[in-house]
Design a protein that fits this description.
The strands form 2 sheets. This protein has a 9-stranded mixed sheet with strand order 3-6-7-2-8-1-9-10-11, sandwiched between helices. The protein folds into 2 domains: about 190 residues, Rossmann fold (3-Layer(aba) Sandwich), CATH 3.40.50; about 60 residues, Alpha-Beta Plaits (2-Layer Sandwich), CATH 3.30.70.20. The longest helix is centred in the middle third of the chain and has 14 residues. It has 10 helices and 11 strands. The protein is elongated, with a radius of gyration of 22 Å. Helix content is about 30%, strand content about 25%. Helix 1 crosses helix 10. It has about 270 residues and is of the alpha/beta class.
């Protein structure tokens, strides 16, 4: 099972919510895992995550030029719709974060000077310092996360995790263009929001063939969501105690917060023993 969380905007506490849910579910079950696509790593796990080991590499075909064959005609530059190629005095520079490996540049090259080489563009790593089974995404500098990365991540998790385990994925706020892919590939998705309008758009576009969708909301937006017809949304309290525990890297002690966590656990992970 893969459980993802999508915060409709930053700063409302989606990482705090998911990391505390993870600790409630995991307890002594070492097979359950965590993957952060966000930076920095959650404070709750920061003290146990100083030594990392690579477990998966993202490899993508990137064009390379044979300078002996190249006539520097700039056809490759002109035809690249992603603006991933720029001319240099003695060749070309490829911006791997913009290249989508479409091979259009190869087909445009009349001198057969371009070939594709399989290139590492990032990796997933696991912490060696804890039994928490913590993972994080580490892309090359300027590499921009895309739908391709999301698909590769889920392919890795399905092959890597134990069949009876659950992986929790912390999705960065702002990746709106990848929400559809995340909804398609996850087992369950928590939408954490303080915005009824955005949540309404997600619910109306959601397909039954996609993930189980659970709506969690900030406590102070509860009335707005009820007016919009989302009385089933799970309100998550936010106060100084929760903020302090989170910043200090502690499990949140607030009673109402933990009641909401247990409610989420029951809904999403009902097949996992308590």
């Amino acid at each position: 099972m893969i459980v993802s969380i999508i915060g409709t905007r930053g700063g409302i506490g989606s990482t705090t919510l998911l990391s505390n849910l993870f600790t409630h579910v995991k307890k002594n079950e070492t097979s359950h895992g965590w993957l952060s696509l966000t930076s920095p790593f959650p404070p709750l796990f920061a003290g146990s995550s100083t030594n990392w080991k690579k477990v998966f590499s993202f490899k993508r075909y990137i064009p390379q030029w044979n300078n002996e064959k190249c006539t520097y005609c700039n056809e490759c530059v002109s035809i690249c719709v992603n603006n991933a190629i720029s001319p240099l005095p003695n060749g070309y520079n490829i911006y791997s974060e913009l290249c989508n490996s479409c091979k259009t540049c190869i087909s445009a090259c009349k001198s057969d000077a371009i070939k594709f080489e399989l290139t590492d563009v990032g990796f997933i790593e696991i912490s060696n310092d804890t039994n928490f089974n913590l993972h994080r995404l580490n892309l090359n500098e300027k590499e921009i996360i895309s739908t391709w990365h999301i698909k590769e991540i889920f392919t890795f998790l399905r092959a890597y995790k134990d069949q009876n385990s659950t992986f929790f994925i912390d999705i960065p706020s702002g990746l709106h263009e990848y929400w559809e892919e995340i909804l398609k590939l996850s087992s369950s998705v928590i939408i954490y929001s303080d915005d009824p309008f955005t949540s309404d758009l997600i619910y109306k576009s959601h397909s039954p063939r996609q993930a189980k969708l659970i709506l969690a909301i900030t406590q102070n937006s509860k009335a707005e969501f009820e007016k919009a017809g989302y009385s089933f949304a799970i309100p998550i309290p936010k106060n100084k105690i929760i903020a302090f525990d989170s910043i200090q890297g502690k499990t949140v002690t607030d009673i109402d917060f933990n009641a909401a966590i247990l409610n989420l656990k029951k809904i999403i992970l009902e097949k996992i023993p308590s």
